[in-house]
Amino acid sequence: MTAGKFVRSCNFAQIRAYRKLISTGSPFEKTAGFSRAVVHGDWCFVSGTTGYDYTTMKMPYTIEEQTHNCMKTIKKILNEAGFDLKDVVRARYCLKNQSDVKTVFPILGQYFGEIRPSATMIICELVEPEMKVEIDVTAKK
């Protein structure tokens, strides 16, 4: 038997029918060529979200404000996509400074305390110097 007999044809129109792109209207999304979230069937994949206030396009100074802004944006995007925070099954937190971990944990607990998704925290550089936190999540209905 040849490998070709096992390959199934792909109907891209059907794939697009199950896929919905969500945007905040941020110029970063257009410039970098990504969506804030992609819904595919029962799944919602929310891209890395920083602490910008997307109405003013300003970054607050404190890690607390940035973390709350991340979560508010994520919650808004999930709701727009037909999901809720309770649907989140995985979260990834990227912090610029390890010293912020103890400050951020209780804030994340306010949003995810009862939901308890699988989670990973990474200490790393972020795209812009003023960014202190970036969060991405995956949700499943």
UniProtKB/TrEMBL annotation:
Pfam assignment, any one: Ribonuc_L-PSP
Entry protein name: Uncharacterized protein
Source species of the chain: Diploscapter pachys
